[in-house]
Design a protein that fits this description.
Chains A, B: It comes from Saccharomonospora marina XMU15. Chains A, B: It holds the Pfam family TetR_N. Chains A, B: This is Transcriptional regulator. 2 copies of one chain form a homodimer. Chain A is an all-alpha fold and about 190 residues long. Chain A folds into 2 domains: about 10-55, Homeodomain-like (Arc Repressor Mutant, subunit A, Orthogonal Bundle); about 65-185, Tetracycline Repressor, domain 2. In chain A, about 75% of the residues lie in helices and about 0% in strands. Chain A has helices at about 10-30, 35-40, 45-50, 55-80, 85-100, 105-110, 115-125, 130-140, 145-160, 170-185. The first copy, chain A, is elongated, with a radius of gyration of 19 Å. Chains A and B meet through helix 9 and helix 10 of A and helix 9 and helix 10 of B. Chain B binds a DNA duplex (18 and 18 nucleotides) through helix 1 and helix 3.
Amino acid sequence: MASMTVGTVAEDTKSRLLATAVRLFSEHGVGGTSLQMIADELGVTKAAVYYHFKTKDEITEAVAAPALRELEQVLDEAAAQRSRGAQIDHALAGFVDLIVRHRTLVALFNTDPGVARAIDRSLRGEENFKTRMVTLLAGPEPGLAGVITVHVILAGLALTGGAPDHEDLDDDTLRSHLFEVGRRMLGRPKRRA
Amino acid sequence: MASMTVGTVAEDTKSRLLATAVRLFSEHGVGGTSLQMIADELGVTKAAVYYHFKTKDEITEAVAAPALRELEQVLDEAAAQRSRGAQIDHALAGFVDLIVRHRTLVALFNTDPGVARAIDRSLRGEENFKTRMVTLLAGPEPGLAGVITVHVILAGLALTGGAPDHEDLDDDTLRSHLFEVGRRMLGRPKRRA
DNA sequence: GTCTATATGCTGATAGAC
DNA sequence: GTCTATCAGCATATAGAC
């Protein structure tokens, strides 16, 4: 089993590749980053990149994957809360926190169609993300108005959090503002200071 | 002045080209539509397309332009309203109406980075769209919370209106739901039936 | 002023040698 | 696991016909 040891050379190259991809994607966008650029930065050829990932889309998916897994975890935690109010607050706070912490990534998601498709594919499995989020935020039988409201909130928060307009804001400020906007939109009562 | 008559051959080709581009963009997305496809559909060569528009970006800008001009008009009308309440309702209703009527286009805007850039360029002129919208919806001195709230609303409405999830909804249903969500988020009082 | 023919240097992707 | 070689298709560009 020596060849299955954690730190094989291939694993290392693969993670180096991913790290390089994230950096270049953030700097030039996904569309503005070619496999050639990634390969050059790594000191290998394009074909070597293709050994680790069959397509460019697969790279963007791999970049997005960790954040999506975090999101699933937030949903699990939120669903485990006892009261409806706690479920809503936990889901909203977790979602906002993810957006703020992964701002750069979110900005990428918002502007690149390939990443959006990758997310869609990941989210439309049996563990449908959007359905779960709607259930958490608008209850088990939300109706059309509820579904649309949740859609507007989630899309709005994600786009706003990733927008370059607010990239100078520190995490805490952005997080608390987005959270309060979300709460207000969901009709949650005001909290004490 | 005969050569400046309205219906020159070039003008006709140019508008046919634009109509074809809109259709193909809607079917295959901007990235999925090549200049070759547009040229073939028109029965001309790629170079002919290139004669009318210097770049592909210029085509996407031209596709988005009419809707953006409509938006400017909505802002002008809203600003001309007497009461703050009427300004807010007019701006919101106009924005939502635009999104719903141009749903296909909005969906394109939301998924294509090139179109997004084109819009940005158009909107960040002296007549800054976002600043005007914030002033209309959150008042002349909105503060950070106000700016963020408006951003979340506008982004959320646009993304939701263009989303494939709701493409089966008829215009009136979608419009009224989006409008109500927006009003609620802006703290506007309930209307009578 | 409007278009065709042709070419350049990219891109993502594949096949096969080492 | 990484290489070289090669592919078709892309946006873009220019020269020149009419």
